[in-house]
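REQUEST ID: PR-0412
SUBMITTED BY: lab tech R.K.
PRIORITY: routine
TASK: structure prediction, single protein chain
INPUT:
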Amino acid sequence: MHGCVDPPLGQQVNAPALIIDHVSVHFGGLTAIADMSFTVAERELVSLIGPNGAGKTTAFNVVTGFLRPTAGEVKYRGVSLTHLKSHEVANLGLVRTFQKTSVFAANSVFENVLIGLHRHGRSNVWSTLLALPRVRAEERRLREEAWEILDFVGLGRRAGELGGALPYGEQRLLEVAVALAADPSLLLLDEPVSGMNDVETTSFIELLARIRGRGITVLLVEHDMHLVMNVSDRIVVLNYGRIIAEGPPAEIQRNPDVIRAYLGHGVKRA
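STATUS: complete
OUTPUT:
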């Protein structure tokens, strides 16, 4: 896995990487997001939380180019993302997972990761057809990198199994492996531990620490408050499309607006 390069000399590690500036999203008369503004610093892990329907996935869709905002702007490392398509956003290093598993069920775990690595390939059609030496060398490199990623997330022993045959929790891990194969500088994880048991969630917390050790910035959407409170540098809380609180975990846990929002949706406190 490539990992991230260190910031240029003189650049602060905690400089803003992602800037969401007064973003609103309207669907007809429905407001999904209202005047949302927050930042994610380089190498920071920020969690975006809130009750169901709060607008979290809509925010992800705006950041990653799947949805254009009605108003406002999103920037990443100084580049406006607002009018870019999703693949153009991904090419800038913003890579996401989804709420529902999206593995290639009929392909092996190893092949899933190879598919994720494809955008790093430098061979054209003719060189591939002619099986030039550099193509064979690149194939070896990609296969070695696929093994490294699978070992990194803890799926090396599952490499030959079909993606669709994995237990649900391991399918979520495979999605993360495929996302890492795209060499993200900012990884956006949408409910990554959904469907995982307590042991798997604990292992995922350890994986997040290893991911951050690679210098990767993380924006996390998650309902598991134990995970959120243990891994986050900062937490942004949405309710009905509006930010109602922002701060470190300890501050969010005792914020009365957050407590009211969750209890009002029938959700127990963390």
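NOTES: Residues 3-13, 121-130, 266-270 have pLDDT under 50 and may be disordered.
REVIEWED BY: pending
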